[in-house]
Amino acid sequence: MSTFILLTLTGLGLAALYFLVASGLSLVFGLADVLNFAHGLFLSVGAYATWWAAGHLPGAGPTGFGFVLAAAFGVVAGAAVAALVELVLIRPLYSRTIEQVLVTVGLSLAGVALLQATWGADPRPFPRPEWTRGVTGIGGANIPNASLLLVLAAAAVLTLLLLFLRFTRVGLVIRAGVENREMVTALGIDVRKAFTLVFAIGGAAAALAGALGGVYLGSVSPAQGGSLLIFAFIVVVIGGMGSVVGSAYAAVAVGLLQQFVNYYGTAGLGDICVVALLAIVLLVRPQGIAGRAVTA
C-alpha cells in the first residue's frame, strides 16, 4: 500500500510539472492558434533566472523567502521573454502557420545555444530550500517534499487561471476568443490585444515550472525545457487544444501512467505507453478529453 501511495503522489508531482508547462501552451494555441515550439525556452529562462537570482540578486537565496524572491524573479523573466517573443516575432506571422513553426523552432534552438554559450552545456546544481530535500510521511510512504510542492503549485495555478478566465473581463474575452475568434472580432473586440497577455501568462507558468522543476530534478541544464516540452505537447493534445481543465486531466493521466509503468515495467516503457495513449486518444476522440468535436 505504501508503494502505491508513493507512486501516486510522485506521479502527481510529475503531472503537476507537465501541467505547468502545458497550461500556457494550451491557452496560446487555443486563442492565437500558434504552435509555439519555443515554449520550452520560457521554462529554461525561468530556471536559469531563478538559479542566477539565488546567487546574485540582493535578498534572494536558496532558503525561505530568499528562494521565493528568486523564483518570482524567474517567473517575471519568463513572462517578459514570452511577451517580447509575441510582440517581435509572432505578431507579424499570425495566420502564417509554416512561418510560425519555423520561427519558433529556430528560436528554441537559438535559445538553447545561447544558454550553452553563456553557462555551458553541463547541468548545474540548483539551489533548493532545505525543506524540499526532505520527505513527508503519508500513509506509511515517504513522499519527497519537492513533489508535494509541485502539486500545491499546480493546484494554485489552475485555480488562479480558472478564476481569471471566468471572472475578469480580459478572461472572458480570452475564453470567447478560444471558442470563436472570428465572432469576437466581428463584435468589434480586438482579440490580438489579449494575445500578448496570454503569451506572458503562459511564459510565467512555464518559468514557474522551470524554477520548481529545478527543485524537483536538483539541477538545471539548457536542454531541460525541450525535453519537458515534448510531454507538454502530448498533454495538450490529449486534454484538448485550448482547454486548461483538459490539460489538467491529461497531465494527471500521463504522469501517473508514466510513473507506474516505469516502476513495474522496464525503464522507458512508461514513455512508450504515454505515446500509445496519445495515439488511442487521437483515434477515438481526436478533439481530446475536453475538446469539442469539429463538425462540417
UniProtKB/TrEMBL annotation:
Subcellular location: Cell membrane
Alphabetical UniProt keywords: Amino-acid transport, Cell membrane, Membrane, Transmembrane, Transmembrane helix, Transport
InterPro entries named in the record: ABC_transp_permease (IPR001851), BCAA_transport_permease (IPR052157)
Primary location recorded for the protein, binned into one broad class: membrane
Gene Ontology MF annotations: transmembrane transporter activity
Biological process according to GO: amino acid transport
The keyword Cytoplasm is assigned to this record: no
Signal peptide: none
Membrane topology designation: Multi-pass membrane protein
Keyword Transport: yes
GO terms under cellular component: plasma membrane
Listed transmembrane segments: 65-89, 101-121, 141-165, 194-217, 229-256, 263-284
Family recorded in the similarity comment: Belongs to the binding-protein-dependent transport system permease family. LivHM subfamily.
This protein's name: Amino acid/amide ABC transporter membrane protein 1, HAAT family
Originating organism: Asanoa ishikariensis
The organism's taxonomic lineage, starting at the top: Bacteria, Bacillati, Actinomycetota, Actinomycetes, Micromonosporales
